[in-house]
Design brief:
rod-shaped, mainly alpha, CC_CF, 2 domains, CCDC113/CCDC96_CC, single chain, Cilia- and flagella-associated protein 263, 4 helices
Amino acid sequence: QTRGRYKSKLYSATDCFLGLTMEQKCELAERALMEMKDETQRMKEDSEQTLQNLEAVLEEADVWWADVKKAIGDFEEDLISTISSKKGNIIASEKLLRYLEGKNRQRDLLREKLHAKNYVLMGYKKKLQQQLRQDWMGETICEVRLQQLHIRNAQCQEKTDLKNQELLQLKLTLGKMVKVLNLYKRKLHDAMEMSKSLMKDVSHRKELLEEIEREAAHVEEQRAEAESVNRQLRKQLSDYRVPSVLSYVRKIMAVSDLEKSLKAWETKVAVAKVS
């Protein structure tokens, strides 16, 4: 009965386990396991005690049956043999009285023995009832503790819900911040790419400017040489004396070539200055 009541209490308390944490469930499971082990040990001890009592009763019954057989044998041996003799009626009556008195004394002794045994059994019964009462009180305390744990679990669940809401809000804020950060990262990346492109463009323009400056210097040198040649030619023209016709024609052609070359160089110089 104790085991059945314990199981019913245990099964009725399983509904409270649904809202408990894993540590609380483990603690309650360990406690229930220890109680089941204690209950099993007590049942084992009770069974052993009951078995010993039954063995004692069987031994007592065997002894009593042996006494009965012996009494029957003695009765048949003493009384029946005495009654069958001539003077056996008086002797048999006396023996019967003594036999009955002895049996009465044995019955009184047995009654006292049974009273003592009954007293011991009553004490054992009270002890078992006290143990059952303690078990019931322990189960009641377990139920109270389960209710307290359920209340604490509900409070912890409320706190957990609040923390989860705060965590969700923080996650939303973090998501927005991550989006803004990614936007600024993209802008920074675009700015860096533009800066690299501008740096390359500036470097290319510097190289182009250096090349133009080198070409301008080279053209300036050629222009100076052309002006020097032009001055020499003009000096020669100023010092010119009328040559022969053939020489004149050659000179005219040379001058024409020089003028063409001069115009070409002047054009190059003008283009170089413009660029």
